[in-house]
Amino acid sequence: QVQLVESGGGLVQAGGSLRLSCAASGSGFSANVMGWYRQAPGKQREVVAQINPGWRTNYADSVKGRFTISRDNAKNTVYLQMNRLKPEDTAVYYCNVEGYYSGDYYNEEPIWGQGTQVTVSS
Known about the structure:
Layout (H helix, E strand, L loop, with lengths): L3 E4 L2 E4 L4 E7 L5 E2 L2 E6 L6 E6 L5 E3 L7 E6 L4 E6 L8 E7 L2 E3 L2 E3 L3 E2 L3 E6 L1
Parallel strand pairs: 2-14
Antiparallel strand pairs: 1-3, 3-9, 4-11, 5-6, 5-10, 6-7, 8-9, 10-13, 10-14, 11-12
C-alpha cells in the first residue's frame, strides 16, 4: 500500500544543481533504508546513494562530494541534493524503499518510484 512519489527532476546546465524529493505515501509505517538509483539509456540501473533510518549513508564513487542524500523519518521522505552536475549524471532517477516497518510486521518487498528524468547539458 506504500507508494513513492518523486519530484524535482529537470534540465540543468553542467555545474548546476537540482534537488530530488521522494515521499512515501500512507501512514503508520517507518521506511527502512531509502535510496536513489539511476539508469541511463543502454546502461544498467545503478545505486547512487542510500540512507538508513539512523542517517548512515552510502554513495557511489561517481557522486561523492557532489550529491547529498538526506531523509525525514517522520515524513518518510528522502531527498537527493545534486550539486556540480555533470553531463554523465543524465539519467532517469528512481527512488527506492528497501522495506518498511508497520506495527508488528516488516514488509521486505522493495518499492520503487516511477522515475524522474534528470538531464544535464554541457
